[in-house]
Amino acid sequence: MAPQPPDQDSIQRMQDEQWLKHFLRNRERTTAKTSKPAEPHSRQTHPKVSVAHIRDTLYGAIQLVSKLSMACETLKHNMENESVWADSYAEAVSVKTDLQEKLKVLGDSEFVESLKKKLSSISKRRARLRRRQVEQDEDKQREEERVAEREAAIDKWRMKRIHEVEEKKRAQELKLAADTVLCEVRKKQADAKRMLDILRSLEKLRKLRKEAASRKGIFPEKEADQAFDGLVERLRALIRKRTGVYGAEENALRVMLETEQEEERRRDLEKRQKKERERLLLRKREMDSMLFGDEMPPDHPLQPFREYYTQAERSLPALIQIRREWDLCLVSVDHPDGTTVPQDWVLPQCPTDEIWATALDRGDCLGP
Questions:
Q1: Closest Cα partner for 98 from 67, 53, 55?
Q2: What segment(s) does the record annotate as region Disordered (predicted)?
Q3: Which residues 6+ apart lie within 8 Å of 368 measured at CB?
């Protein structure tokens, strides 16, 4: 049985496949010719570029990959449309060429290594800037805290001074008011005493007039004497009552003034005692500085030794133990080698020679 001749569709399909193979072969040759002159350029060393340029290159490569994917999709869906397929293929080849150029730049190991070093230096510089900014912020915060502490101390001192001035002013005003009231009370007491003297003078005058009238044979009525005596007694009782009130006011004012004076004396005594305590404390610090050296900071290497030798000041068991060790050295009073323990620190005296004095510090001895 002879083979059947191919139909029209089969012939057309074979022609299309041959044309496609021929077209692809020609495209490969064209691509090879256009890519050969670019090889010497690819072997050249890439110039130094900035990080911003590399970032733009990466973003451009991503966009080219996206375009190439879209071109491939277009080629897959337009296999039978020759004109669209040819345009899409040319665009895909162009995009691929651009993408290869960008990937050549990004694929250079030396270039990538230099880029890593540059990024590392940028990161270190930014870290230094951040640390510097943090240090500046901390310094600024510490300075603000110091300023706030100084301002708080100044405000506290100012408020204390204002309070002292106000207290002193109130005390002066109170004392002045008490003195004024006391003067008025004493004036009223003097007026009451003068009125009593006037009443006594009136009684004497009436008595003298009655005697003069009796010698003339004139005798006053008994009711008049009783009225006069009653009026004098009422006035005298009123004056005595007022005198008692004035006396009570005077005593109260005297007590108030004495209390204020006592309070003022007490404040003066406290101030003197405070100054004396400060002077003794300063003296003690000078003595401790001469005997044991200046006060050490908490992190000083010799601080543990100082704490060991001064543990009796903070611990009662340590004090008892040290006292027991001292008691082991006690001897009788008549022992030839026995000496009494000094009651105070044995301080260095001033040098008797001026030459020796030049070799000593001013704080190494006590004396005039």
A1: 67
A2: 1-50, 126-146
A3: 350
Angle CA 173–174–178, to nearest 5: 115
For the stretch 133-153, what's the b/e string if a residue is b when 16 or more beta carbons lie within 10 angstroms of its beta carbon? eeeeeeeeeeeeeeeeeeeee
Distance CA 160, CA 102 (A): 77
The pLDDT of residue 318: 93
* pLDDT at position 44: 42
Amino acid at 309: Y
**Of 10, 102, 24, 23, nearest in space to 63 by CA:** 102
Structure letter (DSSP) for residue 208: H
> Per residue in 251-281, pLDDT tens?
888 887 788 788 888 888 998 999 999 999 8
pLDDT given for residue 277 in this prediction: 92
Question: Exposed (0-12), middle (13-18) or buried (19+): which is 253, by Cβ within 10 Å?
Answer: buried
Residues in the chain predicted with pLDDT less than 50, given as ranges, are: 1-6, 32-33, 35-46, 367-368
Spatial contact of 365 and 351, defined as CB atoms under 8 Å apart: yes
Number of neighbours of residue 185 by Cβ within 10 angstroms: 19
Cα(356)–Cα(343) distance, integer angstroms: 28
Residue 14 main-chain phi, psi, to 5 deg: -65, -40
For the chain, the helix, strand and coil percentages under 3-state DSSP, each to the nearest 5: 80, 0, 20
